[in-house]
Amino acid sequence: MGRLVVNVACLVVALSLCGFAQMGSAQLRHNYYAKTCPNVENIVRGVVTKKFRQTFVTAPATLRLFFHDCFVQGCDASVIVASSGNNKAEKDHPDNLSLAGDGFDTVIKAKAAVDANPSCRNKVSCADILAMATRDVVSLTGGPFYAVELGRLDGLSSTAASVNGKLPQPTFNLNQLNSLFASHGLTQTDMIALSAAHTLGFSHCSKFSNRIYNFAAGSRVDPTLSKNYAAQLQGMCPRNVDPRVAINMDPVTPRTFDNVYYKNLQQGMGLFTSDQVLFTDGRSKPTVNAWAQNSAAFKQAFVTAMTKLGRVGVKTGSQGNIRRDCGLFN
User: Where, in this chain's numbering, is Ca(2+) 2 bound (predicted)?
Assistant: First the structure.
């Protein structure tokens, strides 16, 4: 009997801990600001749309900012915080230095617009604004419009050291990609769907030059690259290229969020090793082939994966707050 009581007590504790672990994502809901700031999505969308019309870079920059934020300490807008004094923040880690300023600017301007509404002031987190803005840029570029779960708080810390080993690298193979995404509760299918964010935006030559020069003994160019595509890349990225030169991630439809990303992989036109491996590895190839043929299926998988990503590391209660300035702690 004593052992039974102990076992039941352990079960209760285990369930309690499980419930605590899920509290953050459980707080998220579609109508979170229905009473406190009912027009928040329209306000954010208006700012994002205006910024997007001014510069297309707004789209890939905001989308990439969301990924880099969620993968490090969870979706808590910690990547937006500026370094101060001796504290080197996330945004100044080498893996984040290529984040375009338009992404940060979009969130900051949207936050200002939300707080300009007296009923909304200091009631909407920067983390939620980033999540909404990300959905909006996906939609503005031809991708799916989806309901965003809201209710995140902004994180209370941001350190460059916290970025180490947390972000996917261009050289990753499938095992490395799966392992990193699995650490955030994301499946291989989620990973392949989220990789299609590379249908937008650009990369600097240094991120893939290893594939077009001195790849391996006896093979100067990565054999998984299309020969014509490799020649194009060499033309745009000579050995001593200006480090500011940027190349479209999707050479076919670089300004449209679509499934052409997967069609490019079928043709040997994945810019990074981590892109092309999705087609060359037999475990992920069937999914690439399926989504290259079925745009609707891909977009649904992307929405599912983005929703799951948006639940990673959500801060609640004393774990966070609502920043008055997205770039500074209160």
Answer: 199, 250, 253, 258
